[in-house]
Every structure is written in C-alpha cells, then in structure tokens.
C-alpha cells in the first residue's frame, strides 16, 4: 500500500485541508473587522469519528485483473458556522473581536505545523520500516 493511502496520512491530510479552509475564514474575519454589521464566522469542528469512517470507506479494492476501485473523497463540504450572538459588538454592530481572531489564527497555525510534523515523522518511520536511510 502506498504511504499516501494509509489511514493516518489520509486523516492528517483531511485535517490539513480543514485547517487551510479555517485559515481563509479567519482571515476574512480580520479583513472585515471594520465592516458594519459583519459577524465573525468559523468552521464547524472537524468530526474525528466521521473522518475515520470516511477514511476507512476510501480503501482501494483491487480486482483479479489489476484494476483498482476507489471511493470518492468528499473534502469540499466544510460548513461555515456563524456566531449568532457575539458577546461583544461595536456601535456599528460589527461582531469581530480582533484579539479572538488572532488567537484562533495562531492556534490554526500551530495545529497545521503539528500535522506537517506528523506527515514527516510518519514518512521517516515508513522509510525506516522499509530499510531506507532517511536523514532529517
């Protein structure tokens, strides 16, 4: 099985795609910090169990003649949730709190760095198991 098709790599890739989309949404919040009536948005949390079920259903099956059958990968359906009642608003009813958005951006960046380190370390372990020498 190729390294990219392992469950850990598929789930880490899904997490990285979710984090990338969240970074876009949070950046949009910061860009609209002075827009009257704008409320901050965020993505719904990524459901680990649903991701695990989807990853397990994406296993490739091979037929006797060498053809493989693959299930689809639905990564375009991250739903944006709005903060319906922000606890702090400006006089023009803008619900973006810059400090909160910066904290979320930093958390997202840290989570993305963790996911890339998981990718790298798992690749090194995979190479070690195959007897390849990897320096880094």
Tell me what the structure shows.
This protein has one domain (3-129). Helix content is 49%, strand content 7%. The chain has three helices and four strands; from the N terminus they run H-E-H-E-E-E-H. Strands 1-4 form a two-stranded antiparallel sheet. A two-stranded antiparallel ribbon has the order 2-3. Strand 2 and strand 3 (68-69) form a beta hairpin. It is elongated and about 65 Å long.
SSE order, one letter for each helix or strand: HEHEEEH
Could you give the count of β-strands? 4
Structural class designation? mainly alpha
Q: Strand portion, in percent?
A: 5-15%
Mean pLDDT, nearest integer?
78
Largest sheet: 2 strands, antiparallel
Oligomer: single chain
With strands numbered from the N-terminus, the spatial order across the biggest sheet is 1-4
Approximate helicity band: 40-55%
> How many independent structural domains?
1
pLDDT < 50 runs, ≥5 residues: 68-76
**What count of helical segments does DSSP give?**
3
- Give the overall form: elongated
Rg, Å, rounded: 20 Å
How far from one another are the termini?
24 Å
């Amino acid at each position: 099985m190729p390294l990219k098709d392992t469950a850990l790599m598929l789930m880490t890739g899904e997490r990285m795609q979710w984090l990338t989309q969240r970074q876009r949404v949070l950046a949009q919040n910061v860009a609209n910090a002075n827009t009257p009536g704008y409320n901050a948005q965020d993505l719904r949390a990524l459901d680990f169990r649903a991701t695990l079920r989807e990853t397990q259903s994406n296993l490739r099956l091979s037929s006797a003649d060498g053809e493989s059958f693959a299930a689809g990968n639905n990564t375009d359906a991250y739903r944006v949730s709005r903060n319906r009642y922000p606890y702090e608003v400006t006089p023009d009813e803008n619900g973006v709190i810059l400090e909160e958005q910066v904290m979320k951006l930093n958390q997202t960046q840290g989570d993305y760095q963790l996911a890339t380190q998981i990718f790298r370390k798992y690749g090194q372990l995979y190479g070690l198991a195959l007897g390849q020498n990897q320096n880094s």
